[in-house]
Specification:
By secondary structure, this protein is mostly beta strands. It folds into two domains: 138 residues, no CATH class; 169 residues, Porin. It contains three helices and 17 strands. Helix 2 packs across helix 3. The longest helix is centred in the N-terminal third of the chain and has 16 residues. The protein is elongated.
Length: 311
């Protein structure tokens, strides 16, 4: 009988990350095996569905799971509970249900909310009619996130500009592409000595980033993105002949690469590198004809910051 169950078992692959005082991978694997005999862990090189699981310790504890198959990642879910062990129990049941929808709904104190979409389980499965116990399982087809970066920008003024950049965005967590949209703002100022006077630069811009696809492994998410940047540059000269203030429009577009690393619960660190082409690479002149600065056609930027995701 046991041999027949092993023959019918689906091969799966587990990508597991646990932060804080959460069960380790061996403990989690045992919880999955305790719920069904219809799965086994794949051998190297064997074709198999992959279950990406990340657990976060905290108050409350939380976890995320997504299924990756030949069509890409899907079935993303987020779990919250009082303890990380309860989160591990809930996600272990989700894995078991994905492999075998007939898995008993209750295994000791296994928490799954009624009506939750289980990746791989049919809608008619009795497992969909389980009762809530101590954890909550929610769909995460999309979520809002917010945070702030310390951004460095070169080629905007004679100096490399460093400034804070708050952002707000939306990130898909289900489907093959997992796109992301982010809106941010930045303002920075610098001063430059010229002749016997001074020139002051004030740069203000809004940014819209679109990331059409992302790759995620456990707590790490990497995405290539496109950026549109629009705003204004104000330059004011003092202490020179014919001092003036000029306000010019600003527009740039380009590409960037962004990486995010999950910390505790919903918090993450993000980092990016960008290269933008400036459509408004103006030359600023002190009369009669002394070039103060010309905006570089191509500018490089980098950023590092902290953000939070909201289910």
């Amino acid at each position: 009988m046991c041999l027949a169950q092993e023959d019918d078992a689906e091969a799966i692959r587990l990508s597991y990350s646990a932060l804080g005082h959460c069960p380790d991978e061996a403990d989690f694997s045992a919880r999955v095996r305790a719920r069904t005999t219809r799965l086994r862990f794949a051998q190297p090189g064997e074709t198999a569905r992959r279950f990406d699981v990340t657990l976060f310790d905290g108050a409350p504890a939380s976890g995320e799971i997504s299924v990756v198959d030949a069509e890409g990642p899907h079935g993303a879910r987020r779990v919250r509970a009082a303890t990380c062990a309860e989160v591990a129990d809930a996600i272990a049941l989700i894995v078991a249900l994905a492999v075998n929808p007939e898995t008993p709904a209750h295994h000791d104190s296994v928490p799954v909310r009624a009506g939750t979409r289980i990746p791989g389980a049919s809608d008619a499965s009795p497992a969909r009619r389980t009762e809530t116990t101590s954890a909550e399982v929610t769909s995460t087809a999309g979520r809002v996130f917010a945070g702030a970066d310390l951004a460095l920008n070169g080629g905007v003024t004679p100096d490399v500009l460093a400034a804070g950049s708050p952002y707000l965005g939306w990130q898909a967590t289900d489907g093959t592409l997992a796109p992301e949209l982010r809106l941010s703002a930045i303002r920075s100022m610098s001063n430059e000595a010229v002749s016997n006077g001074q020139a002051s630069f004030a740069w203000t811009a809004g940014r819209l980033d679109g990331c059409p696809v992302a790759w995620q492994a456990a707590a790490l998410r990497v995405a290539p993105c496109a950026r549109i940047e629009a705003g204004a540059m104000q330059v004011e000269t003092t202490g020179v002949p014919a001092p003036r203030t000029r306000l010019r429009g600003w527009f740039a577009a380009g590409a960037l690469m962004r990486a995010e690393w999950g910390l505790v619960d919903a918090l993450f660190v993000d980092a990016e590198l960008a290269a933008l082409v400036r459509a408004t690479n103006d030359r600023f002149v002190v009369l009669p004809d002394t070039t103060l600065y010309q905006v570089r056609l191509i500018g490089l930027g980098a950023a590092l910051g902290l953000g939070a995701r909201f289910p």
